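Structure ticket #2291
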Amino acid sequence: MPASPRRVRLGWLGPALLLIGALVGGLGVWWMARARPQPGPYVDVLALDEEWAVALRQQRGSPNFFLELRHARRGLAWRALVPPYAGSADALALAASERAIAVRFTRDGIDHLWALDTKTGQKMGALELGPSLPASAPVRLFGAGDRAYLVVRAGDGLAVRAIDLTRGAPVWSRDVGADEVFAATISDDLLVLARGPGGAARTAIRIADGALAEPPAGVFTPPPGPGWYPALTPAALAGLGQPPTPGAAPLRPHQRAGAVTWVVLPDQVVRMKQAE
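Resolution: structure written out below.
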């Protein structure tokens, strides 16, 4: 008759080992949660239309950022981690269309461009843009449809580069001199830049081929100042539960799209149906 298997009595050691195992397992879960990149405060927003917007937010404890595609009612569609953002509240470095989102970032003093699929957030491609612009540069990236127009260094001056976001391919590049670019807009078939002291000078570039053209009249009147976002009115901020501090400018990064305004608050991006 075969011998019975020997039983090992653990006594008090059994519960202790179970407790240690539970603690180690809990520590592992805690560490994984801590090690996973955590989204922080919202920084900027780029409206796709009245229903969809691209939001930018910091990563907690890191120089990296997150891009989020958000719907006005359904909330988060996707979130993607990106390297240190090469823009600021006064210098937008995002562009977006229904098919592609472009984000400009800096790494070791060199600026790069990433293109992400708007529907999925998957990376489509990347381009190196050259040495980073000064921190004071007001305009770094301007989007129009599936095109992104980037202000880059070119020798002692600046150039504007047009990129096809769907193909990740350069379209043209145009040297524009050394004056800072304060704002950019599309007027008919021209990319019009506000430049020079106070943004009073104009440079027009044909979007088809990058050739210089005569600036149209009536664009940027009055001349824009540095920065992309005007102040929200006190009434608008009060409607968001954010009453302005007396004597302080009620500034919030925001962007209008049709009849709505997307507004950045520290912990969320909200849509105001009545633009103020």
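Closing remark: Helices lie at 13-35, 234-239.
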